[in-house]
Design a protein that fits this description.
By secondary structure, the chain is of the alpha+beta class. It has three helices and three strands. The protein has a domain of 100 residues. It has a three-stranded antiparallel sheet. 14% of the residues are buried.
Length: 158
């Protein structure tokens, strides 16, 4: 058997030696896929990321908003008419409408909820409803407004 020529491919190697590959299979446009992939990913994933971030901001504000009016309505619904309670010797327990609304409004105001722009407190019978609206500043799409009412009832005895 004859020895291979110097610099030529060796048949006893599974992997070709560096620098021995021919450039016949490579075209003049090789490497252009990288910029096309980068542009495509930018056009697809950047808007998707912005959408996910904005949706997360709205969701977080909504979760906070659900808790705040609920706590305020429970605070207001716990206010009893102390004068009626004392006059009856502890036998008559009723809701004080004025104290209930005032306590609920103070609770909403003291909550420190970011973006809280307005709230209303209504009383119907023994049910107090506190509803609040929050403005959420989004990353790209401007401002979103979220509104949520919550109720609590005054119940005494079983």
């Amino acid at each position: 058997m004859r020895a291979p020529a110097l610099g030529g491919p060796r048949i006893d190697r599974a992997v070709p030696e560096p620098g021995t590959m021919t450039r016949r299979g490579q075209s003049r446009q090789s490497g252009q896929i990288l910029p096309m992939v980068a542009i495509t990913m930018g056009l697809l994933f950047v808007p998707l990321c912005v959408f996910v971030i904005d949706t997360g901001l709205v969701e977080a504000s909504y979760d906070q908003l659900c808790e705040t009016p609920q706590a305020a309505s429970e605070d207001g619904a716990s206010m009893i008419d102390q004068a009626a309670f004392r006059e009856s010797g502890g036998q008559r327990v009723v809701l004080d409408p004025r104290a209930a609304k005032t306590t609920s409004e103070h609770s909403l105001q003291a909550s420190g909820l970011p973006g809280l722009e307005s709230w209303t407190v209504t009383l119907a019978g023994n049910t107090l409803t506190a509803s609040a609206a929050v403005r959420v500043k989004l990353l790209i799409f401007g401002i979103a407004s979220v509104h949520e009412p919550r109720s609590a009832s005054f119940v005494y005895g079983s």
